[in-house]
Write a structure and sequence with these properties.
The structure holds two protein chains of two kinds. Chain A is α/β, with parallel strands linked by helices. Chain A is built from 15 helices and eleven strands. Helices cover about 40% and strands about 10% of the residues of chain A. Chain A has a six-stranded parallel sheet. Chain A has a three-stranded mixed sheet with strand order 9-10-11, with no helix packed on it. In chain A, strand 5, helix 4 and strand 6 form a beta-alpha-beta unit. By secondary structure, chain B is α/β, with parallel strands linked by helices. In chain B, the strands form two sheets. Chain B has a five-stranded mixed sheet, with helices on one face. In chain B, helix 1 crosses helix 2. The chains are: A alpha/beta, B alpha/beta.
C-alpha cells in the first residue's frame, strides 16, 4: 500500500480526536535543524467542518485488537487496516512542515499487539524526528493506556504535549462500552505525567538545562452522548482533572455514530449544541472563576439549551446585579453575561483614564447585546425597567435571540488556548 | 477653545515622523493640531514642516525606550499603509508621551481607538499568514511562497520564517506590491520584482501537494460539515494561494 492510501485511512481514522492545539510551548529552532514552536500556537488551515488544522493528525496504525463500541477502528468493524512505518510518518511531517502546511505532528494509534509494542513504535517516530532530523516543531503524542511508565517518561521528553484519553465520563460506561480499557490504566499515566511535569518545572528552576517534560502540558478527551452521564457529572469530572491532575485542557467530543451497536444510543444527529455548552461551561471553570457546583446542581443536572451557562447563572442570581462597570473588580465584571476576559480587561484599562459611559462601552468594543441588562454606568442603568427582573430579562433575551442568528452549531477549536 | 492649527508634511514616512516630532516639541496642545499631507495646490492652507530623517529616527528610538508596546503598535499601524490618519497618529504619540504603554487601554479616546484597531488588524493578518502561507518546492530545491495580503507584512513575516525554516532556501513574493524577500545561506534580503516569471516546480512537488490535499479532505468530519465557519476562520480572499483549496 502506498503512502497516499495509508494517509487516507489513517487520517480519516484520527479525525475524531478533538485537540488540535499547538500552543503552550516555546522552542527556538536549532542550528541546522528545522522548526520551532510559538507560544500562542498557529492554525494553518480550517477543514470543511470548520475546525482548525494545526497539526498533521494521524494514527500510526488503525489495526486494533480492542473492540470499543463507539470506535470506528474497533476490531469487529470491517474497515480497511493500515499501518505507517516510522520513516513514512517522519517524511510526511517534514515535507508538510517545509511547505508550512502544519505546525507539527499529532500522533495517536490503535492498540496493535500490545500497549507496550504500540507505544514503543510511537516513541520511535518522535525520537527519529527529534534526534536524527533535529525537528523543533510541535509534537502531540497520545499515550496508550497500559504501556510501561518508562515509555510514558520517554514520550514526555520528546513531545510538547501528551494526552491520555479518558474516553467516557464514568467507570460504569467504560466497562460497558470499552471493556478492554480500565479506569486505572487511564488515571495512572495521567498522575505520572502530572508528577513528571511538576518535577521538571522544579528542576528547571534550579538548572535551566534540565530537560523539559511535556512543556505544553497534558490534555484528555471524552465522548459526549454515547453514555448516560449528565452534564453535572461531566463538569465535576473536568473540575477534578483541572484541580487535582493539573490538566491543561479537557476536550469534549460529541458522539458521532460510526458503527451500529445495541449498547449505543440512537441519535438523530451528533449532540453538537450540548458539546458547545459544555465547552462554554469549561471556559467558566478555567478562566471565569466559576465552580461546577455554581453552574449546575443535582436538581439542575443539564446545561440550558437556550442560554449560555453564564447567562443562565445570571438569571438565577438577580441579587448579584446590576454590576457597576466603573467600580466592579475584574472577578465581578467576568460574571456579567456578554463580558468576557477581553472586555473585562479593556474596561479596567479604559476606566483608569475616565469614567466609562454607555457610549464608551461601545467604543472599547464591548458587545452590549446581553450585558446591557446586567450593568450600570456611574449609577445609570442601560435598560431601566428591566434590571433586577429576571423574568423580563429572560423574555427580552429570547426575543433578541429570535431575530438574531441561531445558536452556533459547534465550537471553534482554536489553535491556541487562552 | 483655541483655533485649530494646521501643519503639512511631504507625504513620506520620514516627513511624517519628523513633523510629529517638531509639533510635539513646539506645540503646547497637540490635541488641537491637524497634520496632513501637502497637496500641490495653490490654496493649500497650513504651515509646511521640512523633513528631517534624523529627527524621525530619534522620535522612534525615544518611543521604543519610553513605551515599547506602543512602539510596536505603531510599527504594526504603519504596515497597514493607511492614508489620512496623520492627525490621529500625532494625537496618539502625544498621549504615549504622557501615559506610556498604558495608553493602548485608553480606547475611549478616538485617536487611540483608530490607531490601535488598525494596528490590531495588521497584527491579525500577520499572525494569520504565519499559518496560511504555502511554500512550493522549485526545481533547484529552493521554496517559493506567493501571497496577496491586505497589509504590507513581508518584512515581519520573513523574519519569522528565517528562524523557523532556517535550513532551507526560500522566497516570499507579495504579488500585489511586487516585493520579495529572499533567504539564502544565512542572509535575508528584500527587493522589488519588475517582472515575475513563474519558476518550474520540483519533480516531487505535485505528489506532496496531493498528499496534503488528501489529508485536508479526510480530516474533516462529514457529519459536521460547516462551510460558514470555515470561511469565517479562513476568508476566501486567501484561498488563491492555498494548496488545499486549488480547483475550488
Amino acid at each position: 500500500m502506498d503512502t497516499l492510501a495509508k494517509l487516507q485511512i489513517l487520517s480519516g481514522a484520527a479525525r475524531y480526536d478533538a485537540s488540535c492545539a499547538s500552543s503552550g510551548s516555546k522552542r527556538e529552532a536549532s542550528v541546522g535543524g528545522i522548526g520551532n514552536t510559538s507560544q500562542s500556537g498557529i492554525c494553518h488551515s480550517w477543514s470543511d467542518d470548520g475546525r482548525c488544522i494545526s497539526l498533521l493528525k494521524i494514527l500510526l496504525s488503525n489495526d486494533c485488537r480492542y473492540d470499543c463500541a463507539y470506535c470506528v477502528n474497533r476490531s469487529s468493524n470491517a474497515v480497511e487496516r493500515a499501518s505507517f512505518t516510522a520513516r513514512e510518518v517522519v517524511d510526511l511531517t517534514l515535507e508538510f512542515y517545509r511547505r508550512n502546511y502544519i505546525e507539527g505532528l499529532f500522533l495517536s494509534s490503535a492498540v496493535m499487539q500490545s500497549p507496550d509494542v504500540t507505544m514503543d513504535r510511537m516513541v520511535k517516530v518522535v525520537e527519529t524526528l527529534r534526534q536524527e532530523e533535529q525537528f523543533g516543531g510541535y509534537i502531540h503524542l497520545k499515550i496508550i493506556p497500559g504501556c510501561s511508565s518508562d515509555l510514558v517518561r520517554k514520550a514526555g521528553l520528546y513531545a510538547d504535549r501528551i494526552s491520555v484519553n479518558i474516553e467516557l465520563p464514568s467507570q460504569v460506561s467504560l466497562q460497558r462500552l470499552a471493556p478492554q480499557k480500565h479506569k486505572n490504566a487511564i488515571l495512572e499515566p495521567m498522575a505520572l505525567i502530572g508528577r513528571e511535569i511538576t518535577s521538571s518545572l522544579v528542576e528547571r528552576k534550579a538548572d535551566r538545562r534540565a530537560p523539559r517534560f511535556a512543556p505544553a502540558g497534558q490534555s484528555t478527551q471524552m465522548i459526549i452522548g454515547a453514555s448516560p452521564e449528565n452534564d453535572f457529572q461531566i463538569l465535576r469530572l473536568s473540575q477534578g482533572l483541572y484541580k487535582k491532575m493539573h490538566l491543561k485542557r479537557v476536550y469534549y467530543s460529541a458522539y458521532v455514530p460510526v458503527c451500529e451497536d445495541n449498547r449505543l444510543p440512537v441519535l438523530a444527529s451528533p449532540p453538537l449544541l450540548r458539546e458547545h455548552r459544555l465547552y462554554q461551561a469549561d471556559w467558566l471553570l478555567r478562566f471565569y472563576g466559576f465552580s461546577a457546583e455554581e453552574i449546575l446542581s443535582d436538581d439542575l443536572p443539564f446545561l440550558d439549551e437556550t442560554f449560555d451557562p453564564k447567562t443562565a447563572w445570571a438569571l438565577r442570581h438577580p441579587e448579584f446585579f446590576p454590576v457597576e462597570i466603573n467600580r466592579a473588580d475584574y472577578a465581578t465584571l467576568l460574571r456579567v453575561p456578554g463580558i468576557g476576559v477581553t472586555s473585562a480587561k479593556r474596561i479596567i484599562a479604559a476606566r483608569r483614564f475616565s469614567a466609562i459611559t454607555p457610549e464608551g462601552m461601545k467604543r472599547i468594543g464591548v458587545v452590549m447585546k446581553r450585558a446591557k441588562y446586567f450593568i450600570t454606568s456611574s449609577g445609570r442603568t442601560f435598560e431601566k425597567s428591566l434590571v433586577g427582573t429576571p423574568a423580563l430579562v429572560r423574555q427580552q433575551l429570547l426575543l433578541g435571540d429570535a431575530t438574531a442568528t441561531l445558536p452556533p452549531r459547534q465550537l471553534v477549536f482554536p489553535g491556541f488556548s487562552l | 477653545m483655541k483655533a485649530t492649527k494646521r501643519y503639512l508634511y511631504d507625504g513620506t514616512a520620514d516627513g511624517l515622523f519628523s513633523a510629529i516630532s517638531w509639533i510635539l516639541e513646539e506645540e503646547a496642545d497637540p490635541e488641537n493640531v491637524v497634520l496632513a499631507e501637502r497637496e500641490q495646490t495653490l490654496f493649500e492652507d497650513g504651515l509646511f514642516i521640512n523633513t528631517d530623517s534624523i529627527q524621525a529616527e530619534q522620535l522612534f528610538s525615544r518611543l521604543r525606550n519610553r513605551a515599547s508596546d506602543a512602539a510596536y503598535t505603531l510599527y504594526l499601524f504603519m504596515l497597514a499603509e493607511k492614508e489620512g490618519m496623520e492627525s490621529s497618529l500625532l494625537h496618539y504619540i502625544s498621549l504615549v508621551y504622557r501615559y506610556g504603554d498604558t495608553v493602548s487601554g485608553y480606547l475611549t479616546h478616538p485617536a487611540v481607538r483608530d490607531i490601535v484597531s488598525i494596528a490590531k488588524k495588521a497584527g491579525r493578518e500577520l499572525h494569520r499568514m504565519k499559518g496560511l502561507l504555502r511554500f512550493e518546492k522549485l526545481q533547484d530545491g529552493a521554496y517559493l511562497a506567493k501571497m496577496e495580503p491586505d497589509h504590507n507584512i513581508i518584512q515581519p513575516l520573513a523574519s519569522y520564517f528565517r528562524t523557523r525554516l532556517r535550513a532551507q532556501h526560500w522566497f516570499l513574493y507579495d504579488v500585489k506590491r511586487r516585493t520579495a524577500a529572499r533567504w539564502s545561506n544565512g542572509v535575508l534580503q528584500f527587493g522589488t520584482i519588475e517582472q515575475f516569471i513563474t519558476p518550474a516546480l520540483s519533480e516531487d512537488e505535485k505528489k506532496v501537494q496531493l498528499l496534503w490535499q488528501t489529508f485536508f479532505k479526510t480530516i474533516a468530519i462529514a457529519d459536521r460539515k460547516n462551510p460558514r465557519l470555515q470561511k469565517s476562520n479562513m476568508p476566501m480572499k486567501y484561498w488563491k494561494y492555498l494548496t488545499e483549496k486549488q480547483g475550488e
